[in-house]
């Protein structure tokens, strides 16, 4: 069993990333995957790191974990510089990366938890109750003595999460942690992650394409697009910024054929449907000017509007706006 690491210092951010840049050699020259990314994460925060494919999210995570060497910039975990003192930094951070082999196939679930706890200087005999609680939370009780290699993909994902939790590091990086989990286990894991942050001051950074999970679990969201940070704020604040941008319009009867073309030409129509002979659509409008312009287009087409209601945005709406050309509303955009 390895010696137990010393507790992390309390006066440094749990994760600090400063001016992080990573370039690669491409066929037509240098490709910038990450471009000057900076952020600090304090102890006890649950942060969602989001971005579309190619945004630099995976490169950022791997660089923070010391798996990729940055072209420039710095990363520290609880004050320990990751790329200068990797083994010391690893005392404070655990991760589950999608596509990586995160467990030992021949060991049972219980043996895997004990093994990874021991690697971190924890005597598994003193953590029996803790490990059983992890097994129960992840819905692995009936498989606890099965070798990991005999389990389904979803079960292996649960074991990998369990091993990460068993290491008891103050910082956790979880890549798509809910992938392959059933609804009940997802709910239980969300509760456990919130408990770890609240009661044990764990810092959790997770990536996910499931915006419902991010909205339910995270205190804060960092959004990457084209290798840069385009948003860094609390979930509530991001939702407030994008409030009143989308509307649901319900029409009576079938509108003229040219109406949809006219709307698509001027606005971002998110959805169009026809139910029981009546048409309806969702539309994103940037401010009052576009609102009245949309009303004028409907009037010009002699469309009968049954209702025109505001849609409260969810995190997925915000994410789409941030990572497409529309970006922030005019009053929030950078000069």
The major beta sheet can be summarized as: 6 strands, mixed
The low-pLDDT segments are 325-335
Number of distinct helices: 11
Number of domains: 2
Helix content: 25-40%
Query: CATH superfamily assignment of the largest domain?
Result: P-loop containing nucleotide triphosphate hydrolases
**CATH secondary-structure class of the largest domain:** Alpha Beta
Pfam family, one: ABC_tran
GO molecular function, one term: ATP hydrolysis activity
Keywords: ATP-binding, Nucleotide-binding, Transport
Family: Belongs to the ABC transporter superfamily.
Task: Summarize the helices and strands and which ones pair or pack.
Elements: E1 15-26, E2 29-41, E3 46-50, H1 57-64, E4 72-77, E5 80-81, H2 86-89, E6 93-96, H3 109-119, H4 128-137, H5 153-167, E7 171-175, H6 183-200, E8 203-207, H7 211-217, E9 220-225, E10 228-234, H8 235-241, E11 246-251, H9 257-266, E12 268-275, E13 278-284, H10 287-300, E14 305-311, H11 315-322
Helix pairs in contact: 3-5, 4-5
């Amino acid at each position: 069993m390895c010696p137990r690491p010393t507790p992390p210092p309390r006066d440094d951010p749990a994760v600090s990333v400063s001016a992080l840049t990573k370039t690669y050699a491409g066929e037509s020259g240098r490709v910038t995957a990450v471009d000057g990314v900076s952020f600090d994460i304090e102890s006890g925060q649950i942060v969602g790191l989001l971005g579309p494919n190619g945004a630099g999210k995976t490169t950022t995570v791997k660089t923070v974990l010391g798996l990729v060497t940055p072209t420039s910039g710095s990363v520290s975990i609880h004050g320990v510089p990751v790329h200068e003192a990797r083994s010391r930094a690893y005392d404070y951070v655990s991760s589950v990366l999608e596509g990586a082999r995160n467990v030992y196939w021949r060991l049972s679930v219980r043996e895997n938890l004990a093994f990874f706890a021991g690697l971190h200087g924890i005597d598994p005999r003193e953590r029996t109750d803790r490990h059983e609680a992890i097994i129960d939370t992840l819905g692995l009780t009936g498989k606890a003595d099965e070798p990991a290699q005999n389990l389904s993909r979803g079960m292996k994902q649960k074991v990998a999460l369990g091993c990460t939790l068993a290491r008891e590091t103050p910082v956790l990086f979880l890549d798509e942690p809910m992938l392959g989990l059933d609804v009940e286990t997802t709910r239980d894991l969300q509760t456990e992650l919130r408990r770890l942050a609240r009661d044990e001051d764990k810092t959790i950074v997770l990536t996910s394409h499931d915006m419902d999970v991010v909205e339910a679990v995270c205190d804060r969201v960092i959004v990457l697009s084209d290798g840069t940070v385009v948003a860094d704020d609390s979930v509530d604040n991001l939702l407030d910024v994008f409030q009143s941008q989308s509307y649901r319009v319900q029409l009576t009867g079938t509108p003229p054929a040219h109406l949809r073309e006219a709307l698509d030409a001027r606005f971002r129509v998110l959805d169009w449907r026809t139910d029981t002979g009546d048409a309806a659509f969702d539309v994103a409008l940037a401010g009052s000017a576009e609102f009245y312009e949309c009303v004028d287009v409907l009037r010009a087409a002699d469309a009968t509007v049954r209702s025109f209601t505001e849609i409260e945005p969810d995190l997925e709406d915000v994410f789409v706006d941030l990572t497409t050309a529309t970006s922030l509303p005019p009053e929030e955009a950078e000069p």
